[in-house]
Amino acid sequence: MAIPNIRIPSRQLFIDGEWREPVKKNRLPAINPATEEIFGDIPAATAEDVDIAVKAARRALGRDDWGSTTGAQRAKYLRAIAAKVLERRPELATLETIDNGKPWFEAASDIDDVVACFEYYADLAEALDSKKKTEVKLHLDSFKTHVFREPLGVVGLITPWNYPLLMTTWKVAPALAAGCAAILKPSELASITSLELGEICREVGLPPGALNILTGLGHEAGSPLVSHPDVDKIAFTGSGPTGVKIMTAAAQLVKPVTLELGGKSPIVVFDDIHDLDIAVEWTLFGCFWTNGQICSATSRLILQETIAPQFLDRLLEWTKNIKISDPLEEDCKLGPLISRGQYEKVLKFISTAKNEGATILYGGDRPQHLNKGYYIQPTVITDVDTSMEIWKEEVFGPVLCVKTFKTEEEAIALANDTKYGLGAAILSKDLERCERFTKAFQSGIVWINCSQPCFWQPPWGGKKRSGFGRELGEWSLENYLNIKQVTQYVSTDEPWAFYKSPSKL
Ligand SMILES: NC(=O)c1ccc[n+]([C@@H]2O[C@H](COP(=O)([O-])OP(=O)(O)OC[C@H]3O[C@@H](n4cnc5c(N)ncnc54)[C@H](O)[C@@H]3O)[C@@H](O)[C@H]2O)c1
Ligand SMILES: C[N+](C)(C)CCCC=O
Ligand code: NA
């Protein structure tokens, strides 16, 4: 498919079903990381806009056109959104590539996931109608108890830049399916496609206030959303330090949060892999896909000593073969990092690893053929010690560090030697061993003989410092529902007889 030439839309904040200029009229530049050029701008919301949006969301919940909808009615909106996203697929993929730097074909595949996700939550919204009220059997006949699953209320959704529209969808689709009214705050580094979702909602006639989209900086737009007293919940995906700030601020109001944070996930490779090339490719994909900016990247390769030399030789051959180019080029496999800040941060991780005694086996610098853009070569680091920063900290760039092991016990200990717990992968022909590792991995996701494939039906999320709560599947719907217990006394002609009845004169 030819990559389309497109017009860059200029939008305002999406509040109460319409485009509104921010109260303070500020805008932020949108930067293309492949060229370092400003290609557009986005509105910068502040606390004043947050307050207007929260009021619009609360009104939506009180109005019949949103607050009294059935799941089946909401499903129609979700399917209409999916259809419009699909209609605009090539254009949205191009916008995402220009804004984020990921290869165009990855962006297009993310848009396919966005469509599938809206459709999937449309199905779950419909199914919710029959599960809205369920009876809980009691041991007494004099009472009847029902459990109602109702929308949680006004929810704040704060998302990162690495999968801009997809991370937005992972939150918006279930929140709307559940019947909540939402305020989305996408990352200031890649907000363009999330703003287009506003236009799509307007076109499909989503009731005003059901979804509001506030772009802007974290401390100016995100922070007031978290501490707003009329926001019932915050669902956050982003870095650990921001997660801590959000949890701390939300705690002041006893506001529930779900946190999808970072990781330093292991990939354990045994010498009994099915095929050397297949195992090498999964190892590369696990770390270098999406320009290495994946929360679940399996960025610690834990390799059985017996195959280490031949595995690493082959891995380098494959790595040299990765095409690094402008992400709009059709066969690009590695584009630039998101920003100058991220580029400098990743180079610093590499130089610290070198200073701490590790070996840069491949890469470690910007590719020589690209003198503009935030590009870094795919990098492989060996002679790594478990005390080194490169072993312990999330890089969020195309950097793979390698450690070898002799025994299964040693491999498990190395895999779990991290404060994070998002993903973990094992490559081995021995399925009983894979089973043992599945149990032993301290993570929310396990991949066997692969790394990274993600579908919308199973749950997604981590443990330890990778956060808590689950997105995707039915689990995500639960994030946006209030469980209400309703207990009725049915033996109304029988006194309760707890107090002594006063005599009737
Ligand atoms: N676990 C997952 O599913 C998952 C998915 C994607 C990204 N991530 C993680 O996200 C990180 C990269 O994303 P990022 O750089 O956009 O993260 P970030 O924490 O810098 O920003 C995430 C979002 O939080 C907002 N924000 C920043 N400060 C805030 C504050 N004080 N209050 C409220 N909101 C605030 C930002 O504007 C942005 O919208 C990585 O650590 C990565 O692992 C995790
Ligand atoms: C599963 N995906 C598509 C890699 C998205 C993961 C979100 C974290 O970066
Ligand atoms: Na950008």
Automatic annotation (TrEMBL):
CDD domains: ALDH_F10_BADH (cd07110)
Keyword set, alphabetical order: NAD, Oxidoreductase
Catalytic residue list: 260
Leader sequence segment: none
Gene3D superfamilies xrefs: Aldehyde Dehydrogenase, Chain A, domain 1, Aldehyde Dehydrogenase, Chain A, domain 2
Record domain Aldehyde dehydrogenase: where: 19-486
Pathway terms, separated by semicolons: Amine and polyamine biosynthesis; betaine biosynthesis via choline pathway; betaine from betaine aldehyde: step 1/1
Family indicated by similarity: Belongs to the aldehyde dehydrogenase family.
Protein name: Betaine aldehyde dehydrogenase, chloroplastic
Organism expressing this protein natively: Datura stramonium
